[in-house]
Amino acid sequence: MKLLIVCNDRWNPGARMPFSVIMEDIFAERVVQHLKNDYQHLCNGCDKDCDHCRDKYPVLFPVDFKDDIAGVIMLPAEMPYYVDDPGDYFPEKLPEHDVVIAIHIHEDLLLSLPQRSKDAGGKLFIVPSEDPAWLSQWIRGRLKKICDNLGLETSFPKPFCTMTAGPDQPLLAEFMKQFRIGKPDITIKVQDGKIIDSQVITSAPCGCTYLVCRNLIGKDVDENLNVDVTAKYWHSYPCVASMDVDRELGDTPLHKGGYMHYECVADAVAEVAPGIIVKKDRVQITGKK
Fold first, then answer.
1. 189: which residues sit within 8 A by CB, 6+ positions away?
2. Which of 34, 105, 117, 172 to pair with 287, CA 20 to 30 A apart?
3. 264 contacts 187 by C-beta, under 8 angstroms
4. Residue boundaries of the structural domains of the chain
């Protein structure tokens, strides 16, 4: 399964053209760096204490997916408010691929992308939203119809780390199994009430789950595990999802990203210590190490 990522280049501040919008976002960089295992520029949460946790996991699951990425198309960060001809911004033919991830691209370009993807072999179309402003409900509905008519499977996770595959999404399930991104999933081992090992099965697409997972090791397993550990290291990464309240979520995308990590830690504890119920609601940082 080959992946094509379409996102925006960095914006160089300066004089802007009239009636323009800025589409730059560092989230796309994090997704690309995570999939390429470029953690030297991605994760510095452990600083000098880094033990290269990401390099330990290829025995179980691959972490470096450079060979599975068909290409990364970088669009200009500054775009006209309305785009008359999306073809001015795309190559004449996209690289052959199975899956497209379109991250915060101009909606006029986004609507033209499914057909271009289909022509290049695309079968699955993923459009995450880390901010309520990235994709309007109307455009999402229209995009879904376009993809349905083309026979493309779709996913519109909000935020990206909530992505799961339903029974009618076999390609998405295959994608998540291969690339190990979506809703976080981890395993832990416990001995004498302490976590002695933790491993990532599925990471948040930004790579945050590795920092959380690594820092669970050596911690006491009790109901405050999320309060004392997960909340601290998830914030330390840090999550770059929006703090604007999303009407559909009834909360902010950033908070939703936190809930996904609290749930995965609580679920991992339940697998090995079913008598302990880890708090996963209204979790706040305590500062405890």
1. 195, 196, 197, 198, 272
2. 34
3. no
4. 3-179, 185-272
- Among residues 236, 232, 126, the alpha carbon closest in space to that of 173 is found at 126
Q: For residue 210, give the DSSP letter.
A: H
Q: Which of 235, 279, 239, 4 is nearest to 119 (CA)?
A: 4
Sign of CA dihedral 127, 129, 257, 167: negative
- Read off the pLDDT of residues 78-118 as tens digits, 9 standing for 90 and up: 999 999 999 999 999 999 999 999 999 999 999 999 999 99
Q: What is the pLDDT of residues 241-262, one digit of tens each?
A: 899 999 999 999 999 999 999 9
Q: How far apart are the first and last CA of the chain?
A: 41
**pTM score, two decimals?**
0.91
Paired tokens of 283: 């979790």
**CATH class of the domain defined by 185-272:** alpha beta
Structure tokens at 208: 């945050």
Hey, what are 254's tokens? 């950033």
Average pLDDT, the chain: 89
**Contact assessment for residue 55 and residue 222, using Cβ atoms and an 8 Å cutoff:** no
Query: In a 10 Å sphere around its CB, with 0-12 CB exposed, 13-18 middle and 19+ buried, how is residue 95 labelled?
Result: middle
